[in-house]
Amino acid sequence: MRPLFMSIALFLGAFAITGCATTSLPKTNDRLTTQALEADYYQVRIPTRDGKKLAATVYQPALQSGQSAPLVIATHGFGGFRAKRPLSVYGKAILTGEAAIAAWKAGYWVVFYDQRGWGQSQGRVHMMDPDYEVADLSQVIDWSLAHLPGVKRLEDGSPAIGMIGESYGAGLQTLAAFTEPRLKALVPLTGWDDMNSIAPNGEFRTAWGAVLLGFGGINSGFDIGEMFADPWRSAFDGTVSRDMQALMYERSAASYCDQGKAPHADALFIQGFSDSLFPFQQAEKNYDCWQAQGRDARIIGMESGHVMPWPIQKWRGWVPFYQTDDMVHCGDYSETTVDTIINWWDEKLRGEDATVPQYCINVTRDRGIAMEENGILDGGSRYALSPTRVTIPLAGAFEWLMAGFDIGGDMFRAMWPGADLRELEPNGGFGRPKFVPLYVARGDDEVLLGKPRIALSLAGTSGGKSMPVFVGVGIQHANRRRVHVASEQLTPLPEKGIHNMELPAVSQPLKGGDRVGLVIYGFTTQFPLNSAFLARNATVKGDIWLPLTREEAISLTPERPF
């Protein structure tokens, strides 16, 4: 058994955010306001079915007598909390909060609440239990329709209700879409189709587990509820039990989609290609499910999402753990991410013209591609991987330490007249991960975009013991020693034998001379407690399929829904 991982609370801090006093409102069923309302916000307590109270902030739009406005429900990720005021941390630094505040300023009712067990809400965390977290959402909607005057109705008389939330809040939306018919327009940010993606091949992402445990402890008052109960605690040793896998599947949209059940709400899915918790495929699978059931679904692929701090992942900004792109680029479509979300709600809840494209991929922060409806490439060109030996756990064990030497060496050599590092031997061996180059880019118009596949055989000298290695698609840029993982996500191969599977999707522009191949770790900080701790040798061989293409071969004109 691998050791119990400890919380890394030293990464974490609590934010003290103040707001207006709790307000008690009379019940109302008014579909239109009977008097003018000024833009305002206030704090309320919303009762749940089991008597617990959920803390919420109501953002009241400016309305004239006789007017109405759509309603947006907003909630947070695991271990998070609501935006208690417009200038709160959540309201200015996290996309959910930014979009919620923008919707309020655009004339929407917004109810932003702490899920049970988090922030100022009562109760214990039940890990997305339909009888608790999902049922709580229905109670929030009930309360909102009973107490907020002038909530807009659609042509069929149903309330115009949208929703937004990232990660844990995204999972809540996709679950509720199958049971709550009053939801009409969702914006799940960096969510999951199957919660088991947090534990690829049964190996729990222990670095993220430590962060989630730390955040959860602080923001739940150190009462995380079911997270410490069976079967959830099986993840603490790095490998999830079959019972936990089954439970995570049951609490995922995948369980409904696999039964052919239809969601009630349309959805705009936003997911990162460098999201080290829930890969891009999770949004794509949700998108496919919605499409198959006749719902309107659109998808935006971004560079980032859940991002661990350096040295686990490269530095992407001051906000730790969760980062999203500010802009959506989609061929000739270029708009802020916040405005794109508002445009989505305007279309679905206000009946305005459709402007949000169907399928968008941000290749860089200033360039994007509009895809055809069938999405990104599966597999691609096949490359054979000859038997490659790695030493566990030394391969990659000191990568964070070697990074400074590699970067400094690259800078020094680049200043040397006539320097050309394209003939550097592949990385690998002691300290660094093993890198096996398979393809060299011939021009600057190439892009690695799609879902790589592997059919690899893992063998070793450890008898019957497990042989965990971690693989990903690596890129070594021309004249650079350092290799980076294209998706910044590694996939564990926990046991000896044949591994035939899809790797996390990638979206990376290439330049001439860049080398693309397979990177193999014996130890990685993404799975720090999943690795073997006794030195041994492993051998990897087989095939890998790389989704290589040129931008000119991909549609650059957005496919608009009108």
List its salient traits.
single chain, 562 residues, alpha/beta, Rossmann fold, ten-stranded mixed sheet, five-stranded antiparallel sheet, 10 helices, disordered N terminus, disordered C terminus
Please give the number of β-strands. Answer: 27
- Number of helices in the DSSP assignment: 10
Average pLDDT level? 86
Going by CATH, the architecture of the largest domain would be 3-Layer(aba) Sandwich
- Arrangement of strands in the largest sheet: 1-2-4-3-5-6-7-8-13-14
Structural class: alpha/beta
Question: Radius of gyration from the CA trace?
Answer: 24 Å
Return the CATH class of the largest domain. Alpha Beta
Low-pLDDT runs: 1-26, 555-562
Tally of domains: 2
The biggest sheet, with number of strands, parallel, antiparallel or mixed sense and barrel status, is: 10 strands, mixed
What global shape is seen?
globular
- Which bin fits the share of residues in helices? 10-25%
Q: What's the end-to-end separation, in Å?
A: 56 Å
Estimate what percentage of residues fall within beta strands: 25-35%
- The CATH homologous superfamily name of the largest domain equals Alpha/Beta hydrolase fold, catalytic domain
CATH topology of the largest domain: Rossmann fold
3D structure, described in words:
This protein folds into 2 domains: 9-307 and 339-348, Alpha/Beta hydrolase fold, catalytic domain (Rossmann fold); 377-546, no CATH class. It has 562 residues and is of the alpha/beta class. Helix content is 20%, strand content 27%. It has helices at residues 89-93, 95-105, 130-147, 168-176, 206-219, 242-250, 253-257, 280-292, 337-350, 399-414; strands at 40-47, 53-60, 71-74, 109-113, 161-166, 183-189, 266-272, 297-302, 306-307, 321-322, 327-330, 333-336, 359-364, 367-370, 377-378, 381-392, 434-440, 446-451, 453-460, 469-476, 484-485, 491-493, 497-502, 506-509, 515-521, 536-546, 548-550. The chain contains 10 helices and 27 strands. The radius of gyration is 24 Å and the shape is globular.
